[in-house]
């Protein structure tokens, strides 16, 4: 399919009022094409709190117009001659929250050389509201088509539906990465603090990675049933058990916290908790 056969259009935020739903459907100009790029016909895009923060300029001034959405799944319709990942036209692919990094193109970059492009200090580009090295802007997945450097495009396995895969590209990887990095494996006892969107993934991934025990931790007991259905072996409601820290001291090998509240306390040792 030639680029002239399709148009880049999407739901655009034109100013900070767009966070209240004042979106406009209009065309946009994707980054200038490079032979390392992939064009994707978007079929699914997850929703993330980052979308609201960005639309309202909550994380600094947004580069309007802005098209958000960074849990993108679709079909590759154009693949550059130098694309990575053995991606072919017709493949089902996805893009998460990051679309590019400097990758050492302007000199040495320790983060990119170490495979930690998400920490790139010289050219980290978000999937939306970013600027590529060639001067083009990044526009997200609330659109008909999305253009991304192939380095950050992944193939979606056949066994996962597009609707399930999309939220894994941000929410999912946010908890899967630390679980893998810090050794979640058979025999490990894992605690997941916060049983919201991230916590749901954390519980399921910990079980899938073979953890011997998975504990959901939240302030209230109203999420206990959900946590157990998702695979948790136990549940701690910190507001409803005055002795929760004492009763569960030294019972976990790994704790992943998905919350920003300071009201959930994490036991650090037999006698100390951090709140």
TrEMBL record:
Ordered alphabetically, the record's keywords are: Metal-binding, Oxidoreductase, Zinc
The domain of life for this entry's organism is Eukaryota
Q: Where is the Alcohol dehydrogenase-like N-terminal domain?
A: 35-158
- Annotated Alcohol dehydrogenase-like C-terminal domain ranges read 197-260
Question: What InterPro entries does the record tag this protein with?
Answer: ADH-like_C, ADH-like_N, ADH_Zn_CS, CAD-like, GroES-like_sf, NAD(P)-bd_dom_sf
What does the record give as cofactor? Zn(2+)
Show the Gene3D superfamilies listed in the entry. Medium-chain alcohol dehydrogenases, catalytic domain, NAD(P)-binding Rossmann-like Domain
Q: GO molecular function terms here? A: oxidoreductase activity, acting on the CH-OH group of donors, NAD or NADP as acceptor; zinc ion binding
Cell cycle recorded as keyword: no
Question: Which PANTHER family does the annotation name?
Answer: ALDEHYDE REDUCTASE (PTHR42683)
Family, as annotated? Belongs to the zinc-containing alcohol dehydrogenase family.
Query: What protein name is recorded for this chain?
Result: GroES-like protein
**Which species is this UniProt entry from?**
Aspergillus ibericus CBS 121593
């Amino acid at each position: 399919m030639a680029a002239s056969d399709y148009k880049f259009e999407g739901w655009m935020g034109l100013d900070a009022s767009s966070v209240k739903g004042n979106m406009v459907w209009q065309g946009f100009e994707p980054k200038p094409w490079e032979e390392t790029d992939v064009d994707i016909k978007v079929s699914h895009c997850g929703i993330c709190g980052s979308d609201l923060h960005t639309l309202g300029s909550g994380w600094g001034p947004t580069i309007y117009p802005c098209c958000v959405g960074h849990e993108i799944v679709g079909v590759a319709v154009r693949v550059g001659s130098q694309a990575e990942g053995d991606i072919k036209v017709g493949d089902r692919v996805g893009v998460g929250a990051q679309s590019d990094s400097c990758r050492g193109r302007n000199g040495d970059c320790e983060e990119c050389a170490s495979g930690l492009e998400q920490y790139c200090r010289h050219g980290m580009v978000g999937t939306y509201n970013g600027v590529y090295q060639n001067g083009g802007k990044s526009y997200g997945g609330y659109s008909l088509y999305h253009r991304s450097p192939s380095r950050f495009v992944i193939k979606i396995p056949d066994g996962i539906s597009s609707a399930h895969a999309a939220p894994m590209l941000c929410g999912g990887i946010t908890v899967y990465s630390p679980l893998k990095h810090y050794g979640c494996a058979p025999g490990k006892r894992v605690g997941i603090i916060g049983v919201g969107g991230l916590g749901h993934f954390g519980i399921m991934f910990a079980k899938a990675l073979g953890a011997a025990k998975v504990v959901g931790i939240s302030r209230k007991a109203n999420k206990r049933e959900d946590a157990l259905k998702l695979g948790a072996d136990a549940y701690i409601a910190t507001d409803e058990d005055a002795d929760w820290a004492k009763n569960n001291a030294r019972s976990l090998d790994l704790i992943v916290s998905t919350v920003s509240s300071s009201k959930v306390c994490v036991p650090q040792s037999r006698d100390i908790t951090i709140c």
